[in-house]
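Problem 12. The chain below contains 299 residues. Write out its predicted structure in token notation.
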Amino acid sequence: MKSYHHILVPIDGSDYAKQALQHAIDIAKLTGASITLLNVANMADIINQFSQMENTSELTIDELSATAQANSTGLLKEFASLVPTSIPVQSLFELSAPEVSILQEQKALPADLICMGRGSKQPLKNFLLGSVSTYVITHAPCPVLLAHDEKKGPYRHILVPVDGSESSLQALKQAEILAKGDQASLTVLYVASISDSLHDTAVPNTMEPHKLQELAAHMRSKGHNAFLLCQEQLSSDLPLQCLYKIGSPGPVILQTAADIDTDLIVMGSRGLNRIQSVLLGSVGRYVASHSGLPVLIIR
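Solution.
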């Protein structure tokens, strides 16, 4: 079973970045991973400052870059001091586009987990939200954890949306590692979407009672098969709660997380549906954007 060995944490000095670091620290304690802190001075911001200056010289952009690096040095030291001495930690500074640097450093290290915040101190363009986080979760070849609020102790209840795909089963395996380490409960959720089910069955879109029964039976069968696959993947000593619900996947996932007091959602990045994956695209972005909980997206 895969564990984590090297965790990359992009930081910008915000509380969101500190929350992401806390998740990284706790996961590193469970898995023995090392941590790399990455601060990226946005090249576009520096060039923008340079272009707005009335009195410039050949040294101006170098001075701006040196100032950015000096600020970064203090920030990286502050964040490194939050990491327990038992966890190996290194710090990196880059002058580039944040999303590009994050993926480049992930590959160079290589890191097998990225923990990043979902907010930023920057008012005009969020470093760790919006386009950057969307780009990272879309293109990163490794799992990405998006943190939103303060982590309060160990994980206690982990929710894993599943659809029977290999990606969702990989998510379940990673959730098992965290659940065992923190002695958390583990719940798998299968959301049957009527619109998706109509695409992959011969049942017509009709209100005839016997056709609706066929559709309902088809959806229950898919959910049952997904649960069987989940149980085959897990250790026999880990209790597993299985929930089956019908509805729109994104809102149902968030409502279920609230109902069962979840403190971490772990999702696969690809699902079975070739038209619209339950665990990618609009649903994955919906959960990552609207959840007040940390969301771990598994590749």
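Discussion. The radius of gyration is 22 Å. Students who got a different answer should revisit the alignment rule from Section 12.3.
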